[in-house]
Amino acid sequence: MNNEQFRRLILDQNKPQQTNSNPSPKDATRTGNATPALGSRMRSSIPMTPRSVTGPDFARQLAEYRRDGQPATKRFRSSAAPKGTKLPAGYEDRAARLRAEDGEGGSDDLGQRVKALEEMVKLGQIERETFEK
To answer: 20 to 30 A Cα–Cα from 11, which one of 44, 52, 60, 104?
Structure first.
């Protein structure tokens, strides 16, 4: 049996039912008497995500999902040259200087903040207990 013969068979089976009872096409689909076209579905496509993907929540969720899959990003520390190499005379390693300033500046900054708090205690702006914390 080829496709054309099969189509004739299907059409011949459907025609007598429609001519005898004369139902409307809507009624036939509701009752289930008419056979749908082979291979067809009720819906042409079923979306995988029923929610709206245009909202900001979806973008945030997607970003979090992608971030979870990757290792934590490390802070890039530049160096003028690989370890063990000698730099030419007169070269100033600015990256090393910045790292040194950050390290030293943190302790100096802390000392300055403590001195400022001591002065505030002397002036009576804050209590001694708060300063000791």
So the answer is: 44
> Which tokens is 131 given?
């300063």
Cα angle: 119, vertex 125, 126; to 5 degrees: 90
Give the residue from 99, 132, 107, 102 showing the smallest Cα distance to 117.
132
Count other C-beta atoms under 10 Å from residue 117's C-beta: 15
In this predicted model, what pLDDT tens digit does every residue of 27-52 receive, in sequence order? 544 555 556 666 655 555 544 555 66
Task: Quote the tokens at residue 95.
Answer: 């990256």
Q: Which amino acid is at 111?
A: G
Q: What's the one-letter identity of residue 32?
A: G
SS3 106: helix
In the block, residue with structure tokens 């080829």? 2
Segment holding 103, helix H or strand E: helix 94-123
pTM over 0.85: no
